[in-house]
Amino acid sequence: MSEESDLRALVATFLGLSLISVGGGIAVLPEMSRLVVQEHGWMSQLQFAKLFALAQAAPGPNIMVVGLIGWHVAGAAGMFLAMLAMCGPTSLLAYAFSRLQRRELPWLRAVEKGLVPIAIGLIAASGMLLAEGTVKEAPLVLPVVLASFLFVWRTARSPLWVLLGGAGFGALQLR
Questions:
Q1: How far apart are CA 28 and CA 120, in angstroms?
Q2: 103-118 pLDDT tens trace
Q3: What is the DSSP letter of 20?
Q4: CA 13 to CA 8: how far, in whole Å?
Q5: Residue pLDDT, tens place only, 119-152
Q6: Under a CB-based contact definition with an 8 Å cutoff, are residues 67 and 79 in contact?
Q7: Integer angstrom CA distances of residue 53 from 1, 58, 127
Q8: Which residues of the chain have pLDDT under 70?
Q9: CA proximity to 43, closest of 15, 16, 71
Q10: Cα–Cα distance, 115 to 13 (Å, whole number)
Q11: Model-level pTM?
C-alpha cells in the first residue's frame, strides 16, 4: 500500500472514529483496535496495546495513541493528519454544543443524560479489549493487573506504588 493511500485510510479511519467518540477518544478504543489491527493490518494487537500504554504513560491527553498510530503507519505526516482527523471534528462539535448550552434547552439535557451510560459502556469495553489482547500474547500481565486492581481498591496507599511496581516488573521482563 502506498504512503498516500495509507494517509487517506488514516484520515478516513480517524474521522469516522471522531464522530462516534462519545465519552472521549478512549471510548472508541475497541473500534480503533479493530480498524487498526484487523481491518487495515497496520500492527498486531500487542503492538497496539504497547502504543496505548506508551500514550498513557506520557504526559498529555490520553488520545495521544492516535498520533502514535499515525506515526507508526505513515511517519510525521501520518501523526499530524491522524490527530487532526480525530480531534478536529469533535472540537468543532464541542464548540457548537457549548454555544447551545447557554440557552438551557431541555432536549439537550436529556441527550447529555442519555449519553452517560453509553460512554461508560464504551470505556468499559475499551478496558476489556486491551486486557484480552494483551493477556493472549503476554499471559503474565493478568496477575499483575489483578494485583494492581486489588491494591488500589483495598488499600489506602497511593496508586503511585502500582506504577512503581509496574516499572519494576517491566524492567525485569526486559532482561
A1: 11
A2: 677 887 787 788 778 7
A3: T
A4: 8
A5: 787 777 777 777 776 666 677 777 877 888 899 8
A6: yes
A7: 27, 9, 12
A8: 1, 22-23, 101-103, 133-137, 173-175
A9: 71
A10: 22
A11: 0.67
Query: In terms of Cα–Cα distance, which of 18, 153, 148, 147 is closest to 90?
Result: 18
Q: Are 159 and 65 in contact, with CB atoms under 8 Å apart? A: no
- Of 4, 79, 70, 61, the residue nearest 32 (C-alpha): 70
Asked whether 32 and 43 are in contact (CB, 8 A), the reply is no
Phi, psi at residue 139, to the nearest 5°?
Answer: -60, -20
CA distances from 100 to 58, 120, 135 (A): 34, 24, 44
State the cell numbers at 103: 440557552
From CA 24, how far away is CA 123, in angstroms rounded? Answer: 9
